[in-house]
Amino acid sequence: MNTLIQSIPPLDHSAVNRAQERQAQLTKPAGALGDLETLGVRLAGVFGTGRPDPRGVAVLVAAGDHGVARAGVSAYPPEVTPAMVANFLADTPHGPGGAAVNAIARSVGARVYVMDAGVNADLPDHPALVRAAVRRGSRDLSAEAAMTAEEVEVLILAGAALARQATLDGADIVVPGELGIGNTTAAAAITARMLNLDPASVTGRGTGVDDAGLARKVEVVRTALARTPTTDPLTVLAEFGGYEIAAMLGMMLQAAALRRAVILDGFVEGSAALIGVALAPHLGEYLFPAGVCAETGHAAQLEHLNLRPMFALNLRLGEGTGGVLAAPLLLAAAATLREMRTFAEAGVPGAEKEPE
């Protein structure tokens, strides 16, 4: 695992410079494409070319259950997790999968992968289900460490293996996604500790708990944080995280190590990113946040990571849905940088100078 953490290269700054020079000469007023220009230049650094050409998009959905769900922190019971895994894998008239992420992925041509990272159920065999569980659900983070250090390592490496497979299958853009009743509680605890913030400021309603449920959820996070003062990133993940969060961390690290772009979906993914960037600072250069989600604490994560979201649609579903929605924006940013003609190529007067 240490080899993986240490294998993430910095952006290719020579490619960044070439992309910036090209942006300045494209047939448009300078800055007219707004944030697409910045995204295109960042993609150049990721892929190591001044004219990036990313193709395939893969969303890797890791599902895991959380012992803390028994504390009443969710509006839905834990039985939802295995039922939704079945929904991800179901045959429908429209194609594989009947969940939101499946429908959105089909609309943009993305491939969906599904991992059992630790679902608390006996899942039936399915050829498209990646089995990586070491335990049926994490432990109750309010009373004890959610995972052991060994379990964390196994799930990080399992996530990395799935990301490698996705890239071998042609994905240049990787979207880690998740499913797990109770995982916004785990993400809130990680975020509070990693950012040294009060739990109330980063704990939201998740699946839609009422005021009493939110108060209970904040107290659960506060109780968990009081168990240990640790700030070591991997220990924080083991103490307060979940198996799907560890798996997503592995996906991010491996994708970055292979010089692929990673789209961050929302709050739970952001908690994995906080751990990842603390371990491997260059990881942040490969992260492209989809949008600021409706969950309390997500904006604080993005501010700490110095990342600017692409949109604000009040999403809070998870599954990687927001990340898949953002993929066409990245593809468009790369396409405009790569395919637009420069003033000189188009024979537009004034080509000998930078467009004003």
Outline the secondary-structure elements.
Blueprint: H1 2-5, H2 13-23, H3 35-47, E1 56-64, H4 80-89, E2 91-92, E3 95-96, H5 100-108, E4 111-118, E5 129-131, H6 149-168, E6 171-179, H7 183-195, H8 199-202, H9 211-227, H10 233-240, H11 243-257, E7 261-264, H12 267-279, E8 287-289, H13 298-305, H14 321-339, H15 343-346
Helix pairs in contact: 2-3, 3-14, 5-14, 6-11, 7-9, 7-10, 7-12, 10-12, 11-12, 12-13
Describe this entry's structure for a reader.
This protein has two domains: 2-52 and 337-346, 5,6-Dimethylbenzimidazole Phosphoribosyltransferase, Chain: A, domain 1, CATH 1.10.1610; 56-331, 3-Layer(aba) Sandwich (Rossmann fold), CATH 3.40.50.10210. The longest helix has 20 residues, at 149-168. The chain starts with a helix and ends in a 10-residue tail after the last helix. The strands form two sheets. The chain has a six-stranded parallel sheet, with helices on both faces. The protein has a two-stranded antiparallel sheet with strand order 2-3. The protein has 15 helices and eight strands. The chain has 356 residues and is α/β, with parallel strands linked by helices. A hairpin with a 2-residue loop joins strand 2 (91-92) and strand 3. InterPro entries: Nict_dMeBzImd_PRibTrfase, Nict_dMeBzImd_PRibTrfase_bact, Nict_dMeBzImd_PRibTrfase_N, Nict_dMeBzImd_PRibTrfase_sf. Pathway: Nucleoside biosynthesis; alpha-ribazole biosynthesis; alpha-ribazole from 5,6-dimethylbenzimidazole: step 1/2. Belongs to the CobT family.
